[in-house]
C-alpha cells in the first residue's frame, strides 16, 4: 500500500516538473513568437492589444521599414554585412591564436611558463570596458578610429578561449605525436598547423561559434569606435531603431527587430547541440 | 604537465615562448597599455571650448567630482553603481534559485525526467540572441501603448494611465527580468555540469543513512557545488557591473542620449562611461578606474575563496565537531 502511494506521489511529482519545464520553455519562445506575430500586424492593431495569430500586414510593414531605414545611412542588410566583416576575422584570429597560445604553454617547457599561465588566468576576469577610454584614445593616436581594425585585433587575446583550448589539449593531445613528427623532420610551427590544429577541430568549432556570437552581439565597442553611419554594425542599427521616428509605428519596429534577430535565431537552432554542450564544457573548472 | 627534454642540443622551449608571444604582445599593446593610460587620463581635466580642448593636471579632482565630494557635484558614480547593483541583484537571486532547482531536477536519476535535451536547448536560447534586439523587443512589447499594456488595460487589470516606463521599480524589475530570462539557462547548464561531477556513491551513502531529498540537496549537493556556484556568482557579478546593451536600449531618453529613464534611475556605470567618453575623458577614465578596482576586489575574493577552500572546510568541520560536543 505504502509502495503504491509512493509511486503515485513520484508520478505526480514528475508531471508537475514536466509542466514547469514546459512553461519555462514556452517563456523562452513567447517574446520571439509575439515579435514575429506583431511583425505581420498593422501598428493600430498592435496598439489595441496582444494577438497570438499572424496578421496580413507583413508586406506593408516591410515596405514602411524599407523607406524608414533610408534616413539612417545604412540599411539593415548593410549593417549585417558590416557585422559579418568584423565577426569572421575576429572569430578566426581568436580561435587560431588561442589554440597557438594554449599549445605553446601545454607542449613546451620554458622559464616563464608558470608566470605566463598565471598571467592568462589572472586577466581572464578583466573586462574590456574598464580600459575602453585608454583604448579609444590610443586608437585615435593610431588613426584607426572609425575603422574595423580596433574591433578585430583584440581577438588575438581572448584568455577564456586559451583556457578552454588548454583544457582540451590535456585530454586530446599526447606529446608522443609531436615527438614523432619531430623525428620525421617536421618543424615546430608546421607540426602545430598540420597535426595539432586538426586534432583540435571539435574545440575550435565550439569556440568559433561562441566567439562569433560574442562579436556579432557586441554593442559597446562598436559604439565607441565606429562613427560614420555607413560602417555601423547590426547592434548599432538596432540602437537606431529606438529613435522617435520608429517608435510611433509599432509594425515597423517589430519587423525591423525580427530581421535583426532572424540570423542568430536560425544559427542557434542549427548549432544548438554544439552550443549547449560547449557551455558546460567551458564554464566548469576542474 | 609532461617534462620535455632538449634533444640533440636543440632547445624546443624557445618555440613555446615564440608561440605565446603574439598573445602577450597584443595584450600589452591593446589591453595593458590602454589600462595604464586610462589610469593616467583619470588625473587630468579636459575642458573643451570653441572646439579647442585644454588638458590640465588636476590630481584626484575627477574622483572627487564623480563621488560627489567636490562642491556642487553630484555623486553620479555612486548613483549609477547603485542602479547597476539593484538591477543585477534583482536578477541574480531568482536566477540562481531557479537554476539550482532545474539542475537538481534534470540530474535526479530517480524521477527519470530524462536528460532534458530539448528543455536545455530552449531555456538557453535567449542567451545567444542579440541582447540589443531583445532589449528593444521588450521595450516595444511593454511600452505604454504596446500590445501587452493595452491588453492588460482592456481587461481592467491596470489603470488607464499606468506605465512601466515612468516607474523606477517598473523599469528596474523589467530590466532584471530580461537579464534573468537571458541568463538562467546559462547558469542551469553550468550547475548541471557541476552536479554531474558529484560522485553518486555519496548520494547512495546518504540514502542508507535515511537522508531526505532536501537533506541530500543541502548537505551533499550544495557544499560540493560550491566552486561552480562561486564561479557563476563571480562571472555574473563582473558581467553585471559592465551591464550596457540592455539598459542602453530599453528605456532611455531620445536620440541615444544614454540617460536611463525615469529620472536617470536605470543608467548604469558603463552607460555613464559611454556618455562621457568624448566630452570629458578625465571623468570617464576615473569612472573606469573605480569600476576596475571593484572588479579586481571581486576577483580577488573569488581566488581567495578557491584557495582557502580546504582550510575553510576543515574549519567548518572543526566547528561542527565542537558544536556537536557541546550539545
Description:
The complex is a heterodimer of chains A (286) and B (327). Chain A contains 15 helices and no strands. Chain A is mainly alpha-helical. Chain A has a domain at 73-240: MetI-like fold, CATH 1.10.3720.10. The longest helix of chain A has 38 residues, at 2-39. Chain B has a two-stranded antiparallel ribbon with strand order 1-2. In chain B, a hairpin with a 2-residue loop joins strand 1 (44-49) and strand 2.
Task: Offer a quick outline of the entry.
The complex is a heterodimer of chains A (about 290) and B (about 325). By secondary structure, chain A is mainly α.
Q: What portion of residues of chain A is helical?
A: over 70%
CATH superfamily of the domain at 76-276 in chain B: MetI-like
Termini of chain A, distance in Å?
Answer: 45 Å
Cα shape of chain A: flat
Q: Give me the Rg of chain A, rounded.
A: 25 Å
CATH architecture classification name of the domain at 73-240 in chain A: Orthogonal Bundle
Order of helices and strands of chain B: HEEHHHHHHHHHHHHH
Biggest sheet of chain B, in brief?
A: 2 strands, antiparallel
SSE order of chain A: HHHHHHHHHHHHHHH
Q: Tell me the major beta sheet of chain A.
A: none
The count of β-strands of chain B is 2
Instruction: Please state the oligomeric state of the protein chains shown.
Output: heterodimer
**Total number of β-strand segments of chain A?**
0
* Mean pLDDT over all positions of chain A: 90
Low-confidence stretches of chain A: none
Question: Which structural class do you get from the secondary structure elements of chain A?
Answer: mainly alpha
The CATH topology of the domain at 73-240 in chain A comes to MetI-like fold
What do we call the CATH homologous superfamily of the domain at 73-240 in chain A? Answer: MetI-like
Count of separate DSSP helical elements of chain A: 15
CATH topology of the domain at 76-276 in chain B: MetI-like fold
Determine the structural class of chain B based on helices, strands and strand pairing. Answer: mainly alpha
Amino acid at each position: 500500500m505504502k509502495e503504491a502511494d509512493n509511486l503515485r506521489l513520484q508520478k505526480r511529482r514528475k508531471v508537475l516538473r514536466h509542466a514547469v519545464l514546459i512553461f519555462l520553455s514556452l517563456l523562452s519562445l513567447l517574446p520571439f513568437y509575439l515579435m514575429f506575430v506583431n511583425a505581420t500586424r498593422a501598428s493600430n492593431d498592435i496598439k489595441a492589444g496582444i494577438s497570438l495569430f499572424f496578421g496580413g500586414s507583413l508586406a506593408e510593414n516591410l515596405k514602411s521599414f524599407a523607406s524608414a531605414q533610408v534616413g539612417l545611412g545604412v540599411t539593415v542588410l548593410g549593417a549585417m554585412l558590416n557585422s559579418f566583416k568584423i565577426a569572421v576575422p575576429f572569430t578566426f584570429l581568436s580561435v587560431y591564436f588561442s589554440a597557438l597560445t594554449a599549445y605553446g604553454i601545454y607542449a613546451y617547457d620554458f622559464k616563464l611558463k608558470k608566470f605566463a599561465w598565471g598571467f592568462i588566468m589572472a586577466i581572464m576576469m578583466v573586462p574590456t570596458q574598464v580600459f575602453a577610454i585608454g583604448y579609444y584614445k590610443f586608437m585615435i593616436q593610431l588613426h584607426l578610429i572609425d575603422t574595423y581594425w580596433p574591433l578585430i585585433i583584440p581577438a588575438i587575446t581572448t584568455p577564456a578561449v586559451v583556457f578552454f583550448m588548454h583544457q582540451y589539449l590535456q585530454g586530446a593531445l599526447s606529446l608522443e605525436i609531436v615527438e614523432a613528427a619531430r623525428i620525421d623532420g617536421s618543424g615546430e610551427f608546421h607540426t602545430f598547423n598540420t597535426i595539432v590544429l586538426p586534432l583540435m577541430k571539435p574545440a575550435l568549432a565550439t569556440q568559433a561559434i561562441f566567439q562569433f556570437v560574442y562579436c556579432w552581439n557586441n554593442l559597446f565597442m562598436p559604439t565607441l569606435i565606429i562613427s560614420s553611419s555607413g560602417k555601423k554594425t547590426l547592434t548599432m542599427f538596432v540602437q537606431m531603431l529606438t529613435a522617435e521616428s520608429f517608435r510611433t509605428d509599432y509594425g515597423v519596429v517589430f519587423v525591423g527587430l525580427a530581421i535583426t534577430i532572424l540570423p542568430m535565431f536560425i544559427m542557434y537552432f542549427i548549432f544548438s547541440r554544439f552550443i549547449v554542450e560547449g557551455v558546460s564544457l567551458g564554464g566548469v573548472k576542474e | 604537465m609532461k617534462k620535455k627534454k632538449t634533444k640533440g642540443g636543440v632547445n624546443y622551449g624557445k618555440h613555446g615562448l615564440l608561440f605565446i608571444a603574439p598573445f602577450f604582445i597584443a595584450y600589452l599593446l591593446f589591453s595593458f597599455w590602454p589600462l595604464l593610460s586610462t589610469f593616467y587620463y583619470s588625473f587630468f581635466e579636459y575642458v573643451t571650448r570653441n572646439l579647442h580642448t585644454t588638458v590640465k593636471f588636476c590630481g584626484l579632482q575627477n574622483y572627487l567630482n564623480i563621488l560627489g565630494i567636490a562642491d556642487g557635484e553630484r555623486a553620479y558614480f555612486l548613483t549609477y553603481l547603485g542602479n547597476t547593483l539593484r538591477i543585477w541583484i534583482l536578477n541574480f537571486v531568482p536566477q540562481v534559485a531557479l537554476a539550482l532547482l532545474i539542475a537538481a531536477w534534470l540530474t535526479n536519476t530517480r524521477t527519470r525526467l530524462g536528460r532534458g535535451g530539448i528543455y536545455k536547448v530552449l531555456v538557453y536560447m535567449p542567451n545567444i540572441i542579440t541582447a540589443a534586439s531583445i532589449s528593444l523587443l521588450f521595450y516595444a512589447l511593454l511600452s505604454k501603448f504596446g500590445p501587452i499594456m493595452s491588453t492588460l488595460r482592456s481587461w481592467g487589470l491596470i489603470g488607464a494611465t499606468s506605465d512601466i516606463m515612468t516607474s523606477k521599480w517598473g523599469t528596474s524589475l523589467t530590466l532584471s527580468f530580461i537579464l534573468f530570462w537571458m541568463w538562467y539557462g546559462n547558469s542551469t547548464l553550468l550547475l548541471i555540469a557541476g552536479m554531474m561531477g558529484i560522485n553518486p556513491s555519496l548520494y547512495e551513502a546518504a540514502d542508507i543513512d535515511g537522508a531526505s531529498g532536501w537533506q541530500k540537496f543541502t548537505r551533499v549537493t550544495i557544499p560540493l557545488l560550491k566552486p561552480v556556484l562561486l564561479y557563476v556568482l563571480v562571472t555574473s557579478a563582473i558581467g553585471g557591473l559592465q551591464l550596457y546593451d540592455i539598459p542602453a536600449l530599453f528605456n532611455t531618453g531620445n536620440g541615444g542620449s544614454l540617460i536611463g529613464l525615469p529620472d536617470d534611475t536605470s543608467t548604469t556605470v558603463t552607460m555613464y562611461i559611454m556618455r562621457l567618453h568624448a566630452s570629458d575623458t578625465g571623468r570617464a577614465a576615473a569612472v573606469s578606474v573605480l569600476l576596475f578596482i571593484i572588479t579586481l576586489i571581486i576577483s580577488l575574493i573569488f581566488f581567495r575563496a578557491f584557495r582557502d577552500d580546504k582550510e575553510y572546510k576543515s574549519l567548518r568541520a572543526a566547528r561542527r565537531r565542537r558544536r556537536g560536543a557541546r550539545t
